[in-house]
Design brief:
The structure is a single chain. With 136 residues, this protein is an alpha+beta fold. Helices cover 24% and strands 49% of the residues. It has a 4-stranded antiparallel beta sheet with strand order 3-2-1-8. Strands 4-5-6-7 form a 4-stranded antiparallel beta sheet. A hairpin with a 2-residue loop joins β4 and β5. α1 packs antiparallel against α2.
């Protein structure tokens, strides 16, 4: 089971319509939203910083668009290379279906490297689908 999926639905010169799915053992959240290339580049930068300095401090990526807030915090859970990902997702569509979810899941440093590689391919338009972060 991949714990993070990102699919490009459509894009133009300004925005990318993505579907982002985050899964933990007992929780799954899917967000369909328009983002910019800079938003995805910021995630790649957070992953690069974490992969380079994982022992030093946790790293966080935040997506703040008008109706959706997604926050992913990456931190080393133990000395064996287990990584804990803390996710907070809020969706304020105002249609009676507002949602807020907070959960965490674990993966490995190797999976963090895989996610960074896949996101780089996504940005280079080599792929329209990212499936990564297998459980520990």
């Amino acid at each position: 089971m991949h714990q993070l999926k990102l699919k490009r639905m459509w894009e133009d010169a300004l925005e990318i319509d993505i579907v982002l799915t985050l899964k933990a053992k007992w929780c799954e959240v899917t967000v369909n939203e328009y983002v910019t290339i800079a938003d995805i580049e910021a995630l790649v930068s957070s992953l690069q910083a974490f992969n380079t300095y994982n022992v030093k401090s946790p790293k966080r990526w935040t997506l703040d668009v008008p109706l959706v807030h997604v926050s992913l915090a990456f931190e080393l859970a133990n000395a064996r290379g287990t990584v804990q990902v803390n996710a907070v997702v809020e969706q304020m569509k105002g249609d009676g279906g507002d949602m807020k979810a907070a959960f965490s899941f674990e993966t490995t440093m190797g999976q963090m490297d895989d996610l960074q590689r896949q996101l780089s391919g996504f940005l280079a338009r080599e792929t329209n689908l990212v499936e990564s972060l297998l459980p520990d």
